[in-house]
Design a protein that fits this description.
By secondary structure, the chain is of the alpha+beta class. It is built from 33 helices and 36 strands.
């Protein structure tokens, strides 16, 4: 069956949709389905997307195509709407650069079924569902009516109140009433209805966009919150003088601010550069604030009483008999009042506790309430229902969603794992049940019934061939500051292999400390926990909660059809000997120590188990950034000037230690750990006070951070900062007069030629664009946050581009050979381009086990070389087996 994954769109949640679409595209069972990516662009056009673009980290990485983006000073990242293409032919010409434009009326020629991962208006509001009904294409999730209800928070409140559900006190008003009416009166009515604290939110947005919690009786603060929810803001001259470029980037970010296009007076601004020039010109002649309004506006606002208690989210499924079944509700623990976009989608910044930690009867009451609401609002297939349970035990359901986020860490997969379904199995369930729902709702449904019977038959065949695949242990977790990203990498590898026809992956979690570590085979419900710390806690105290057992029993018809009885077996402690007995090979998805330091590789080699990545000696070298720099420099490779700073030296004489650094380097300089990656504790140090703060923090003896020193370094509230006995100081690499200067990250694969010699396939690197002083964790791993241009924009002239690209690849390969890299790796570098004949490649670091999260740059690069992520992972595993075979023959 051909599954069209419809994703992207033009709502403020398009990046979440894009990342969710990629998850579905990768995790569909390859024995059952052919996945077809159907991208919806900023203008509402459908395009059959060339598959390699699915693996970009952000929509902006490929659309609009980099060649179509005007070069501006200062430079800004843009979406396609900033090109202001009013002509259909111009839009189609742009689309042809990324795929094949498809008129909506012809969708049925390309797909048998539409899997919807669109969010917000035109995705969750019944419009796309109505189009697909008209075209007689079965689609996932709820139908037209329930989708229309699910998008409108005001209508939801009214219906829920009428049907007897607990609803927090609320007050609603529209844009016109606010802009033309008595704003103070609206404030007074809001206070009267809701008291304090109160919550102000747009009625038709998701992902907590435009939401504010107001705690005090302050009209100006209320006014600011309403303007944020209406996507209105004011800019004053002081803000402009202080922030300028950063301010423009903030304003044009539609996830948290106005987005583009926007209105200033009667002028429509389409792109960031035009906004920059407009504001710059305006404040040259005026000291008055200027009002900006997003063209993607919100018309209705909702004010609610703030509920003090536990927040939860609950996925409700349609069981095989058509009755609703609530999965174990998840408690959301966050560091602030709002479950923000950042907290939702970046691993490790919030916690999901499943089931919610309350009494059993209260959990059951939440489940029954969610099932009741599912039925009352006529939902189909599945829904995600959010709510609160107050301190007095009262249940409030406040945000039913007909389309859940489908990123790997979302509630959608997290709760399905509680009944033993991995993501691939759960997606199959969604398709199966959606076809049943469309059969119920359509009068002309012959092809729907054919698809359903065919799928049912194929599911039986898959069951009969279970257990005949190659077992791969996927190692993840660890104890470094990169452990959460390691879990994301490991889950992604597991999911890619689990949807294949070749492999049966086994998730193995690594825990412990630098003295010793332990391995545990873990069940799917633990694998899909929120982060590494949650996984560790569940391993230590594993038990199926009583209410979860009840839900599993109710879900047995689903489990029997889509999963297996042993999916929820308890965690099992494994030795390397046990691993060798149970599995055919190993994929190490660990970052830092252990994993990249050679110790695990040495244990695997003793037992002749094939594994991904470089060998023992190369791993031990590349994890040490100082040793790597020293070796590369000795071989003529350009690296940053660098020195080591030790805890012993600093403890003996703090002043002399700091003075030594200042004699060698000028500010600003870079401070970083020697053996951590993922931008962990990499800081641009601008003065003595920051250097002293950094040194004290990294050499501290307690886990807790000193607040004043953390503030001085600009550490985010949730940011971890490692404790080390040594760290690295490097010069800040700058352009030094180069015509072009950029940061790149380059991936590669290795294989053996017919003569048994090691051959390197160097991918086109990615140009990494940073919005701050160094590439942040968010820019590397948060959906839609960073931007990577692949291949890098070395030169405008084609011949110059080719010449520079060849030289850069040559330097990357030379670096890899010096370091004896095997299998695959990622090398980061800065590039100075003085002319096509004069290029400098300054190596920053080599990662022997690069991040394998869904949006990581190595997948973008592999895609341009013809490898889908599964195919890339398969190449890595196949090389590992050949390497072991060669070693045996030797």
């Amino acid at each position: 069956m051909t599954i069209g994954i419809i994703f992207g769109g033009f709502s403020r949640e398009r990046e979440v949709s894009f990342a969710g679409g990629r998850t579905v595209y990768d995790n569909l069972n390859k024995s059952l389905f052919e996945a077809v990516p159907i991208f919806v662009d900023s203008y509402g056009n459908f395009v059959l997307l060339d598959w390699q673009y699915v693996y970009k980290g952000s929509i902006r990485d490929f659309y609009p195509p980099p060649a179509s983006v005007p070069v501006t000073k200062p430079p800004f990242q843009i979406y396609a709407e900033s090109l202001a293409l009013s002509s259909v032919s111009d839009q189609e010409n742009l689309l042809r650069q990324i795929g094949k434009p498809i008129p909506a009326a012809r969708l049925k020629e390309f797909i048998d079924f539409a899997f919807l991962t669109l969010h917000g208006p035109f995705g969750e509001d019944g419009k796309i569902q109505g189009l697909l009904e008209w075209l007689e294409i079965p689609y996932s999730g709820s139908g037209i009516l329930s989708s229309a209800i699910g998008i409108d928070k005001v209508i939801q409140k009214e219906l829920m109140s009428e049907k007897g559900f607990n609803v927090p006190a609320y007050f609603n008003f529209n844009r016109q009433a606010w802009l033309s009416g008595d704003q103070l009166a609206i404030f007074e009515k809001s206070k009267l209805h809701c008291g304090f604290p109160l919550v102000i939110k747009p009625a038709h947005q998701g992902s907590s966009i435009g939401v504010t919690v107001l705690k005090s009786d302050n009209f100006e603060a209320f006014k600011h919150a309403v303007e944020a929810a209406l996507f209105i803001r004011y800019v004053n001259k002081q803000e402009w003088d202080e922030k300028r470029e950063i301010l423009v980037a903030e304003i044009t970010d539609f996830r948290v601010d106005l987005g583009l296009p926007l209105m200033i007076a009667e002028n429509t601004i389409y792109d960031p550069a035009s906004l920059y020039y407009y504001l710059d010109h305006y404040f040259q002649s005026s000291d008055n604030p200027v009002q900006l309004q997003g063209c993607d506006q919100e018309n209705d606002l909702l004010v609610e009483a703030f509920i003090k208690g536990k927040e939860f989210s609950c996925i409700v499924l349609e069981n095989t008999d058509g009755t609703p079944l609530a999965l174990p509700p998840t408690e959301i623990r966050k560091s602030q009042d709002i479950y923000s976009y950042r907290s939702k989608y970046l691993p490790g910044l919030s916690r999901k506790i499943t089931p919610i930690e309350i009494g059993d009867d209260q959990i059951r009451a939440i489940c029954r309430a969610c099932e009741k609401l599912y039925t009352a609002l006529s939902f189909d297939v599945y829904a995600r229902i959010d709510g609160f349970i107050s301190e007095k035990g009262k249940i409030f359901l406040n945000d039913p969603n007909t389309t859940s986020g489908m990123m790997p860490s979302s509630f959608f997969f997290h709760q399905a794992a509680e009944i033993g379904l991995n993501p691939s199995q759960f997606l199959t369930y969604i398709i199966y049940t959606s076809i049943k729902a469309r059969i119920r709702g359509q009068s002309r449904k012959t092809n729907f019934e054919q698809h359903f019977e065919s799928l049912k038959f194929q599911l039986g065949q898959i069951k009969s061939t279970a257990g005949k695949k190659e077992k791969v242990a996927v190692l993840m977790g660890g104890y470094s500051s990169e452990r959460h990203i390691s879990v994301e990498s490991g889950r992604n590898v597991f999911e890619k292999l689990a949807s294949s026809t070749k492999y049966d992956p086994v998730p193995v979690f690594v825990s412990g400390d630098s003295g010793s570590y332990h391995m545990y085979r873990i069940p799917i419900n633990i694998l899909l926990k929120d982060n590494a710390d949650d996984i560790q806690e569940k391993i230590s105290h594993y038990a199926l909660h009583g209410v979860v057992r009840e839900i599993i029993k109710l879900a047995s018809p689903i489990i029997d059809l889509f999963s297996s009885a042993d999916a929820l077996n308890p965690p099992q402690s494994w030795s390397f000997d046990q691993l060798a007995i149970e599995c055919d090979s190993v994929f190490i998805a660990l970052h830092g120590r252990p994993g990249e330091d050679g110790d695990i590789q040495a244990e695997l080699e003793k037992r002749q188990i094939s594994y991904n990545g470089s060998g023992v000696e190369s791993s031990r070298l590349t994890i040490d950034k100082h040793a790597t720099n020293e070796l590369l420099a000795s071989k003529g490779i350009l690296v940053a000037s660098h020195i080591l700073v030790t805890k012993e030296e600093f403890a003996n004489d703090e002043l002399n230690s700091l003075t030594r650094i200042e004699k060698i380097f000028t500010y600003p300089l870079i401070a970083k750990p020697c053996d951590d990656g993922c931008s962990s504790a990499v800081k641009k140090i601008k003065n003595r006070a920051e250097l002293e703060a950094y040194t004290r923090l990294i050499f501290r003896n307690k886990s807790q951070l000193d607040t004043a020193e953390a503030t001085l370094l600009g550490l985010a509230g949730e940011e971890e900062f490692p404790q080390k006995k040594v760290f690295l100081i490097e010069e800040l690499i700058t352009a030094r007069g180069a015509e072009k200067f950029m940061e790149i990250t380059g991936g590669m694969l290795t294989r053996y030629n017919q003569a048994g010699e090691l051959v390197y396939e160097i991918f086109d690197p990615s140009e990494a664009l940073s919005s701050g002083e160094v590439l942040s964790l968010e820019e590397k791993f948060l959906a839609g946050e960073g931007q990577n241009i692949t291949p890098p924009r070395y030169a405008m002239d084609t011949d110059d581009q080719r010449e520079i690209a060849a030289y850069v690849k040559m330097e990357l390969e030379k670096t890899a050979r010096i370091l004896n890299i095997e299998g695959y790796c990622r090398i980061d570098a800065f590039i100075r381009i003085f002319s096509p004949k004069h290029v400098e490649v300054i190596i920053i670091e080599a990662n022997s086990l690069p991040g394998m999260t869904p949006a990581t740059a190595i997948f973008h690069q592999a895609a341009l070389s013809g490898y889908k992520p599964y195919e890339f992972i398969n190449e890595v595993l196949e090389f590992a087996k050949k390497k072991l075979s060669q070693a045996d023959h030797a």
